[in-house]
Amino acid sequence: MSVMPEPLLALDRAHVWHPYSTLVDPPSVFAVESASGVRLRLADGRELIDGMASWWSVIHGYNHPGLNAAVRAQLERMAHVMFGGLTHAPAVALAAQLVAITPAPLDAVFFADSGSVSVEVAIKMAIQYWAARGKPGKQRLLTVRGGYHGDTFAAMSVCDPVTGMHRLFQQTLAQQFFAPRPAIRYGARWDESDIAELARLLEVHREEIAAVILEPVVQGAGGMWFYAPEYLRRVRELCDAHGVLLILDEIATGFGRTGRLFACEHAGIAPDLMCLGKALTGGYMTLAATLATREVAETISRGDPGVFMHGPTFMANPLACAAALASVELLLGGPWAERIAALEQALETGLAPARALQQVVDVRCLGGIGVIELAMPVDMRIAPRAFVERGVWVRPFGRLVYVMPAYVMAPADVAALTAAMCEVVATF
Ligand SMILES: *Cc1c(COP(=O)(O)O)cnc(C)c1O
Questions:
Q1: Each residue's pLDDT tens digit, 246-291
Q2: Which of 148, 186, 231, 407 is catalytic?
Q3: Strand, helix or coil at 226?
Q4: Distance between CA atoms of residues 416 and 171, nearest Å
Q5: C-beta 150 within 6 A of ligand 1
Q6: Could you tell me if the CB of 277 is within 6 A of ligand 1?
Q7: Could you read off the pLDDT of 299-354 as tens digits, one per residue?
Q8: Using alpha carbons only, what angle is made at residue 238 by residues 232 and 240, rounded to the nearest 5 degrees?
Q9: What is the whole-number distance in angstroms between the Cα of residue 119 and the centre of ligand 1?
Q10: What are phi and psi of 112, to 5 degrees?
């Protein structure tokens, strides 16, 4: 690179938006020069063990030779081609693979360019489905508090109404129905009262509700909360009883993160629509997918206007599809379940000392996710630097200090990462 770190950071500060950030006195960012395996190499030469897997996505580690080769081979053929009226092997092979590995009723794949868009697509499909069945009044959604489904408008409307962006965009956001956050933890004994309000809302508003949308088992960006799979089983039954579709947003949980290939498998249920993203390409490129059952796909296709009304310019980008296909094959070709079980154990062992800290209200691990929940919000002007100084990359939000490393992280690196987390948290 010809641009040195200091001018680069000054230009960044002057002109570049970062996620959920400000251009007036922005908090410092760190320049990454390259990344390999589970390590980020900063422009100043420091190396960090990466706890974030670039927001759930880099499940095999950075700069993976197999994924690099797959993208390079596709690049030699074509980087992109429009998907209207044309098709290509990477998209078809990936769609077939996704249909094969997701729960059986899911049978049709719509490729989108980001997770948020795949959520928009699922919502549009649900509404078109009911219109095709002569129920155009079913246009609203039911969800739970504490959720996160993306930053575009329909996705925002089903994010948590308090921590989400409802206040700012009140006049433009669709008004949806919210039940309380599932209260019973993953692994705790089920109690039917947990589902009572959702059941009541479904009963009262079934003629207005097109779909229930949930993150299965793990609520991610809305609070890193792990809830009882029984909740999902009951939601599936209630949706069937009341004639409402079920959308499961597996964008964060898909591809093994919770210990099952898809989190809905914890409950042994299948949705009518499923959203995939994040780890889909092994973190190489932006790609997402909405999967629908044959029944949903055919109902939409036979109804008015006879087509599904969506079509992104970069739909099914061949480079992204090639990366995704290679990533899924790499995952399925290795002992992913054993690796994630071992990662869960290592996270549990490494984070256990944090339970004794007075700043900490909860420590929880599930699959490849480890969470320390604090009593008070983390100071984001101080925390990132404290982690970097200890040689790790951890980006807390709110009261949560959490990691979801690449599945291939070695035990010694998990130990170093979790030790740094406990150390930094003790200074808060
Ligand atoms: C990240 C995320 C999204 C949004 O995906 P983008 O690719 O950032 O648009 C939606 N739902 C869940 C559960 C997510 O974790």
A1: 999 999 999 999 999 999 999 999 999 999 999 999 999 999 999 9
A2: 148
A3: strand
A4: 47
A5: yes
A6: yes
A7: 999 999 999 999 999 999 999 999 999 999 999 999 999 999 999 999 999 999 99
A8: 105
A9: 8
A10: -125, 175
Q: Do the Cβ atoms of 317 and 113 come closer than 8 Å?
A: yes
Distance CA 275, CA 288 (A): 7
pTM of the model: 0.98
DSSP H helical ranges for 51-209: 53-56, 65-77, 89-101, 115-132, 153-157, 196-205
The pLDDT of residue 1 is 45
Could you confirm whether 249 is annotated as catalytic?
Answer: yes
Pocket test for ligand 1, best of 148, 247, 285, 400 (most atoms within 8 A of CB): 148
Displacement of CA 196 from its chain's centroid (Å):
27
> Is 278 among the catalytic positions?
yes
Continuous segment of H or E residues that includes residue 351: helix 336-351
User: Closest Cα to atom 11, ligand 1: which residue?
Assistant: 149
Q: Which atom of ligand 1 is nearest to the CA of 250?
A: 13
